[in-house]
Amino acid sequence: MVSLPADFVAETRRIMGEERFNRFVGAFEEEAPTSIRVNTRILYDGLRVMGDGGNQVPWCAEGYYLEDRPQFTFDPLLHAGCYYVQEASSMFVTHVVRTSLSPLTPKLALDLCAAPGGKSTALRSVLPEACVLVSNEPLSNRAQILLENITKWGAPNCIVTNNYPRDFRKSKLKFDLILCDVPCSGEGMMRKDPGAISEWSLKNVEKCWQLQREIVADAWECLNPGGLFIYSTCTFNTKENEENIQWMLENFDAEVLDIPVDPSWQITGSLLEGFNAPVYRFIPGITRGEGLFVCALRKNTRKDEGGRTKEISSADIIKNKNLKVLDPGILLPPSSLLTPKVDVDYPEAIRYLRGEAMVLPTDTPKGIVEITYKGQPIGPVKNIGNRANNLYPKPWRIKSTHLPSEAPKVLGNVKM
Hints:
The protein is of the alpha/beta class.
């Protein structure tokens, strides 16, 4: 039986009630579900998601539960961006966007606290193709992980930045959609991350809700009138959730949106007494996923406030002196149609992802060549004739020397 902090147990039991709390605690004795979200830029010829027959995540058309957890690191199709390993609750952002955009047609969107990139890649899959998505992470080491995942996902109109929320406020940029997946006390991660248990404290909860309000205040100033604001945490207490939404409604001209959900999804509503605005709680043991809280809000237009600002291009963001934009480098997708391609088998693909030099067929042109696996680009080499120098970024390389006999069975029949 997992040992949870006494203060957490007392507060969570009070918030959830005895029946919900018992189901939540019971989930710690169960194996957390494994799920993936497939990349819609890839066309699938007879798509098969392996495992339990591709049991779909009900609130995300691209999401699937797997029967078990394969060694994803050794699947070249993961590195090629064919799918993203993401827990199912977090995929709810796709449902929020799909059901809340109208009548808005967003031109510019911001994922303010985006690392490692799960929600950003989910947003990119459901936003209009012409919409520019800025994926931001304040911490530089996490921003590099975000850059890797966004680059591998391969969608156009994505910009990765490394800034604090106040920098966007200074930039004067206005967005049509902002996702604030704010830093939190991490209670919803306790089932799959023991570190979240040891790091939890009432003091940290107090610190988090105050920081969250600072972040939201900066972000709200960057939202266009009529824009969509999505607030989310991976925690259970009301201070970081309902009480923050209540604070937003008291301080901003905001309207909470009612997101349609199916009762079979077992999503829980508000747990704050006297607060009945539509919010969405995912509780392990009740919903098939990890802990998550989501609320969607619309920014109303005040009488003294102008309409939407002028449209902003990618160049305007890159040139903005208040923002640090990260360069994806040579792997900037989509790959050039003029670049020669060499398709390799599974052992060769793993060697490439380890950063090893390669020997290509003798008729391969010299210069930059793209290595593909099952037709999917995984990265470039520089062919100099007798060998090809590996250009896969060093931080992204597989460190393990282990070589599985076959690829993990996650996707079948993947085809561009």
